[in-house]
Amino acid sequence: MHFRSIDDIADGGSLIGKTVLVRADLNVPMQGGVVSDAARLMAAVPTLTALVSRGARAAVLSHFGRPDGRDTANSLAPVAKALAAVLGRPVTFIDDCVGDAAQAQLAALPPGSIAVLENTRFHAGEKTNDPALAAAMARLGDIYVNDAFSAAHRAHASTEGLAHLLPAYAGRSMETELAALTRALGHPEHPVAAVIGGAKVSSKLAVLLHLVERVDHLMIGGGMANTFLAARGINVGKSLCEHDLGDTVRDILARAQAAGCTVHLPYDVVVAREFRSHAPHRTANIHDIADDEMILDLGESAVEALGDALKTCRTLVWNGPMGAFETPPFDQATVALARIAGALTASGSLLSVAGGGDTVAALAHAGVADQFSYVSTAGGAFLEWMEGRALPGVAALMCEED
Question: So which residues are the catalytic ones?
Answer without folding.
Answer: 40, 200, 357, 380
